[in-house]
Design brief:
19% strand, 9 helices, two-stranded antiparallel sheet, single chain
C-alpha cells in the first residue's frame, strides 16, 4: 500500500477496489462500438486524456439513449467512474454535454455537431455526388443515401429520404456493419477478394434479424454475385422490413470511395421488384457520381 509521511507520522493510504462496471443498456440494432486506440511505448505524444474524452462522447452513440448515468458511461467508455466523472465535468464546462436532472444523467448538446460538421461541409464526394443523389431520389421515389467505409462499418454521410412512409430513422453519421448491409457489400465487391475477406474476418458476425447472413462463405458468395452484377442487395438483414440495393462509386484505379444505396420497404415492394425497377437507375447514378468526382480532381 502507498504511504505518505506527515511530520513524524507515516500514514497508510488504502485504495478501494475498482468499482464493478455496469453494462450500458443498448437498443436493438444499436450503433457499433468504436474500438479504442492501440497505444505503444513508442508513442509518447499519445494523449490519454483526449482519448478518454472521446470515449465518453462515443458512449452515447453506443447506448443510443438520450441520457446516461455515470456507471453506464464508465462501462461503455471502458474507463473508471472517477475518470469518467472528470471527463464529464470538462465536457459540460465546454458545452458538449449537459446535466439532465429529469432523466438523472448526462445528455449531448447541439455543440457536439460542431465536431463532425467541418468534415461533411468540406467533403468532395458529397459535393460532387449530391446532384446525382437528388436526381435518383426523385426518379425512384425511395430513400437514397451516400455512405463511406470506416473500419468494418459503413458510415452514412448524406441522405435524401422518401416522401412515402418510411419508419426507419437513418440520420447522417449512422454506422452499420459492412457484412450484412447492401452498402457494405457493394463496397466489398469493389475490393480484391482477399481484402474483402480480411475485413469480414475482423468483423463481429452475428444475426440481427432472422434473415441475416453471418457466416463468411455465404457472405462471400453474395459479394461475388454483387461483383458480377455491379451492385449489391440485402433483404431485411439489419432492420426488419428494410430492403436495400447499393452500388459503389469508383475512384482512382477502380478503388471504391463511397457507396450509393436505395432503401425500400416490404410494405411497398419485394426485393426482386426493387432490383428490377431501380438497379439500372442506381448504377447510372453511381457512374455519374464517379465521373463528377474524377472531373473535380482534375481541375
Amino acid at each position: 500500500m502507498p504511504a505518505r509521511r506527515i511530520g513524524n507520522r507515516v500514514t497508510i493510504i488504502t485504495t478501494s477496489r475498482k468499482p464493478r462496471r455496469t453494462r450500458a443498456r443498448r437498443t436493438a440494432g444499436a450503433a457499433i462500438t468504436r474500438p479504442r486506440a492501440v497505444r505503444t511505448a513508442s508513442d509518447p505524444l499519445f494523449n490519454q486524456s483526449v482519448e478518454k474524452a472521446f470515449a465518453v462522447l462515443h458512449a452515447f452513440g453506443t447506448a443510443e439513449l438520450r441520457a446516461l448515468g455515470l456507471a453506464e458511461i464508465a462501462s461503455a467508455a471502458h474507463v473508471t467512474p472517477s475518470s469518467a466523472q472528470r471527463s464529464l465535468h470538462t465536457l459540460v464546462r465546454l458545452g458538449y454535454l449537459r446535466r439532465d436532472t429529469r432523466l438523472h444523467g448526462w445528455a449531448l448538446t447541439p455543440r457536439t455537431l460542431d465536431i463532425g460538421y467541418p468534415y461533411l461541409a468540406g467533403h468532395p464526394v458529397i459535393e460532387q455526388a449530391t446532384p446525382h443523389l437528388i436526381d435518383l431520389n426523385q426518379a425512384c421515389g425511395e430513400s437514397v443515401s451516400l455512405s463511406e467505409p470506416d473500419g468494418v462499418d459503413m458510415v452514412f454521410i448524406a441522405r435524401f429520404p422518401s416522401r412515402k412512409p418510411f419508419f426507419i430513422h437513418m440520420p447522417v453519421g449512422r454506422r452499420l456493419p459492412m457484412f450484412c448491409t447492401a452498402a457494405g457489400r457493394a463496397y466489398l465487391s469493389a475490393l480484391p477478394q482477399a481484402e474483402a475477406r480480411e475485413i469480414l474476418e475482423r468483423s463481429t458476425l452475428r444475426a440481427f434479424t432472422p434473415t441475416t447472413l453471418h457466416d463468411i462463405p455465404s457472405i462471400l458468395a453474395t459479394i461475388a454475385e454483387a461483383r458480377e452484377s455491379g451492385y449489391a442487395w440485402a433483404n431485411q438483414e439489419y432492420y426488419r422490413g428494410d430492403l436495400t440495393i447499393a452500388a459503389p462509386i469508383l475512384g482512382e484505379r477502380g478503388r471504391p470511395v463511397a457507396v450509393i444505396n436505395i432503401a425500400g420497404t416490404i410494405s411497398r415492394s419485394t426485393l426482386e421488384e426493387l432490383r428490377t425497377q431501380f438497379a439500372p437507375l442506381l448504377q447510372a447514378a453511381a457512374r455519374a457520381a464517379a465521373g463528377s468526382v474524377a472531373a473535380s480532381r482534375r481541375r
